[in-house]
Amino acid sequence: MTSYETIHVEVKDSRIGILTLNRPDKRNAISIRMRREISSCLNGWEDSDAVGLVILIGQGDTFSAGFDLSEFAHPERFDELLASSSQYHRDVWNFPKPTIAAVNGPALGGGFDLATLCDIRIGSESCAFAHPEIKFGAPPIITPLRWIVGEGLARDLCLTGRRILAPEAHRIGLVSQVVGKGLLLKRTVEIGMTILESPPETLRFTKAYFADNPGKGFEESFCIEHDEAFRKILLKRAREAPLKKA
């Protein structure tokens, strides 16, 4: 298995890959190296039969405090900052297998963005979310957030930079569940195993239209989610073996 400096990776027998942001001394700030390592890890898992789903979590008591701002003090690295950030966000969003953010503490700025790029978010009782970067001149990313919590709340969170804690995050649907201290990873793995009860090709197809269909109208989305699903998944499986009754 590849060795990384800023992340720790583990593949369980259950076909769950666990990617841990591993800079606890920096509150898991997302550096150029971390972004490249996340991209490298996900690219390696994309076609691996050993990994059917990925959980992202932070080491220590923080999910991620956001981008490593110290790197913005070095103009000679600006091209790297832009390129690594642009690629990493797309790699997480377009990863073809389900992703779950196990938000074990504050997810701020770029850490908030990382959580919203995942398909599901499970929070610990200590999870929190905010976009404080707007206060020092960095426009937040709103689009994935608006698809999760709705336009009004997304604008509120992006413009005010206010912090929301676990109860509000659960109430607005930002996290699906809030789990007691020490139980977060266990519960997230259980959810992952439930997801992996479905056939891999079905999960890939479903994940593909999660990423591609927002913003499409009903007819265009329906042709993918129904007509293409019938042709490429349901009828193909029916030819190979009868579908199980519910």
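Second entry:
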Amino acid sequence: MVGRGHVKIGVRCERARHLASLRLDGELSAIEGQLLERHLHVCEPCRAFDAGARSATILLRNTPDEHPSRGFETPRRPLVGFPLARRGTALVAAAALSLGALVGSLLERPTTPAPTLEAPQVSLLSHDVKQLQKLPRGTDVAPAPVRSTPPNPPEGAI
């Protein structure tokens, strides 16, 4: 529909048209359906888009499949094999790499262990516990109020 004098539309109309497309495929939730209906109630261009998309979808889904008068065969991709000689070469190369890594790791071991320096252990948790112990006790803090109903979607979400 871009060919018919493409007009720039707003974000709400873009969203509504996307939701209208989802509804045609049966992928729209109940809340999204209500938001779409609310927008279509006030927006004539989107109502026209929805009607056009709906009629085009019905027409396409009800049109019988076309069968060509002449038979044809789709070209097949040639199978690219991995020749047996290359498989053997790859296996020998993998074995040589593994053996080289093993021998190299055995030869490069240090004869004496590296000296370890004893570092004092510092625990951040012990500092936090000390701060918590300093807090005054016996003062009650009122809990935050709990919402009993779910929030309404913002007005004009589409």
